[in-house]
Structure formats: structure tokens, C-alpha cells
Amino acid sequence: MSISKIFKAFLASLTLCLILGLSACAKNQTQTKADQLKVVTTTDFYGEVARAVLGSHGKVTPIITSPSVDPHDYEPTTKTAKLVAKADLAVYNGLEYDSWIKKLGAKKYLTVASVTGAKIGQNEHLWYQPQTMSKLALTLAKEYGRLDPKHKQDYLANAKKYQAKLAPLTKMVAQIKANSQGQKVAVSEPVFDYSLEAMGYHITNKHFAMAAEEETDPSYTDIKKLQTAIKNKEIAFFVLNTQSDSKVITNMVKLCQEYKIPVVKVTETLPAHQNYVSWMKKQYQQVLTLQK
């Protein structure tokens, strides 16, 4: 055989090897992608912790990513239903806050309520409980580890990293509690209640707040009690959910301003361009500033 023919045969063999190698590589990449976990969460702030713990071993898709969308009222689209049906795990708050996701047929569900031990009838705003996200991170690590044992240790390590990011919030709550002296406060809705209680404050108008939460007018008695507390300066501050559009609450804020009662502003949903830690820090800082 001539040198030319030998060289051509060599090139042909090399080309075949490259083709087979690339094919095998592509196949392996496809298999790896297929093996990765698919996780959905109802809200973006739960999506944040789910993504932090999952790391590079899958994809997390939050369903609600706009601060203007109320999870109570969200109506799933066909696209959302397909997304959830394909998910290995769906994470939602529970306590009838975002229960619509239960109808969409995920392979497995995890409620944040089950992580915190909250029951139906209790305050649904679990993400304002200072320990919730830390507990959720660890629970997700264990859940991912069961679904994907090969990366179990990675998930646990990721959870610890996320928990470390929450440490400044724990410190802020402790600082506030040290100076709260069990003072009375009032709220527009029970959005921030878990945080206030952890800070050592006493919420005086829970009946009023629950009516506002349920989008019904508070009773005349509840309104008069709150007005009197504001006028007599019996509360340290008033907590306003700025996403509320109640005229009764708007009037209460005006009364607070008239009688020099500070107003702490919070939101129920994650504001645009913020993450969970920056969101909580901004709200906690308002309380810290008032104590100085």
C-alpha cells in the first residue's frame, strides 16, 4: 500500500473516531441534562432558596415573579400546568395561600407549612418567620438528596452556605428584641406579625388586621380602638402593608402621621430587583432606626 493510501486510511479512521467521540459526548450531555432535577416553586422568594440549595444539579422555576401578583388570586395557565406536571418537586407555602398548585399534578410536593409545623387557621405569611428559610434550606437539601443521592453532600453544603447568608437577619432580629421592651404596636394586616413577635413586640389589633387581610371592613369597635390607641400614643409604631388599597387603612396612616406615630412599611411579596435577604434587611432596618 502506498504512503498516500495509508495516510488517507489514517485520516478516515481519525475522522470516524472524532465523530463517534462527539456523538458519545453529546449523548452523555443529553443524559446528564435529563437526569437533572426539575423544581418549581409558587413564589420567587421560595424559588431563591430552592435554587441556592439545588446549585448546578438542576433547574428551579418560580411561577410568580411579579410583586403585583397576589398568590391567593393566581390562576394557572396551561403552560404553568405543564411545567408543574413535569417537575420532580413542587414547593409551595400551604395554609391555603397558594393551594391551586396542588391540582397541577407534580410528582412530589413540599409545603413550607410542613417545614415550620404551621396548621390551617394560623398566619399564612410563613416567610416572615425568621427561622423559616433556614429550615426550608435544610429540608430541601434532604429532599433533593432523596431524589438525587449522588449529589446529597452537595445539597447539604449548599444549604449551609445559604443559611450563612441569613445570619445577618438573625442578628438584626436579636438587636431589635433587646430594645423592644415588649412595646405595643399595631398593623394594617398580619403580614409582618411573625417578625414582630420574634422582635418582642406585642400586636394590639389582630382582630382589625384579620378583617383587613380577608378584604372585609373592620368592625366599628375595632376601628375606634385603633384610633384611640393612635391618639393616645399607646403604640410604638404602625406597620403598613403598602400593597393594601383599603380606605380604612389609608385613613389610619393619615391619623398616625397627624399624631406623630411612626409608620413601618412592608410588602407581602418580594419587591423587584431585590432578594430575600435585602428585602428583609430593608424592613428590619426601619424598626432598628426607630429604636435609636
UniProtKB/TrEMBL annotation:
One of its GO terms (biological process) is cell adhesion. Residues 1-26 form the signal peptide. The keyword Metal-binding applies. GO terms for cellular component: cell envelope. GO terms for molecular function: metal ion binding. It is found in: Cell envelope. Keywords: Metal-binding, Signal, Transport. It comes from the Bacteria. Belongs to the bacterial solute-binding protein 9 family. This is Metal ABC transporter substrate-binding protein. It comes from Ligilactobacillus agilis.
